[in-house]
Amino acid sequence: MAHKTYISFKTEDEAYKKAIQEISDLDIIHKSLDVPINSTDDDYIMQVIRSEYLADSTVTILLIGLYGAENRGEYEQRYIKRELQGSLYHSAGNTKNGILGIVLPEAESSIYKGSMNCTNCGGQHSIVDLTDRTVIREFSYNFYIPNGKCAYPEDDRYCVLTTWATFVKSPESWIEKAFAKRESPIASKTKVRPKSAGG
User: Fold this and answer.
1) Which tens digit of pLDDT belongs to each residue from 121-154?
2) Backbone angles phi, psi at 187, to 5 degrees
3) Residue 198: inside a domain, yes or no?
């Protein structure tokens, strides 16, 4: 079943957005938030984003390239931050979207850092660098939702993450995986406006 999907992206990564739009059998919304909403009321802004940009969508794809890091500044990232906030926003008559992060080829080496032996549990954990250096906090916090453990198993993450090469092999299955998170227990622990990555 196709889920209506919104793509959040930086202008520099538009070619990847267009490539997704050309995949048959995906129900993609062809809109982007590229003008400011004239208000200081955060709830009003979220309602406008939901009704005018994310209407009827149930999954948001965030393209993670080299230009979407938190440390590039609030103003620089204002649109993708608002789109993710609107996607995570839950209110009467509006449920949050599932969030699928797709790491683009040029960003893979910045994010996937191999694995390490854990001194806590003795196991081996993958090192996935989702910090202010690589992505906006709205994604990193909701991927690494604080859990008091030494690792983040799938059930402890709301956001879903994959690489571009893996996504294009089976786009529907990745969108479905993000969609299913909306009904999982971890959905109740998300934050719309996290103050710091991982905290």
Assistant:
1) 888 999 999 999 999 999 999 999 988 888 888 9
2) -60, -25
3) no
**Does residue 116 sit within a domain?**
yes
Question: Is 197 inside any structural domain?
Answer: no
Within-domain flag for 195? no
CA distances from 95 to 50, 83, 190 (A): 10, 14, 12
User: Please, which pLDDT band fits residue 53 given cuts at 50, 70 and 90?
Assistant: confident
* Structural domains of the chain, count: 1
Domain that holds residue 114: 5-189
pTM value surpassing 0.85: yes
Q: How far apart are CA 199 and CA 196, in angstroms?
A: 5
Cβ 93 vs Cβ 54: under 8 Å? no
Contact 184, 125 (CB under 8 A): no
Separation of alpha carbons 72 and 53, rounded Å: 24
Six token digits for residue 85 = 């906030």
What is d(CA 36, CA 82) in angstroms, rounded to the nearest whole number?
10
């949050």: which residue's tokens? 96
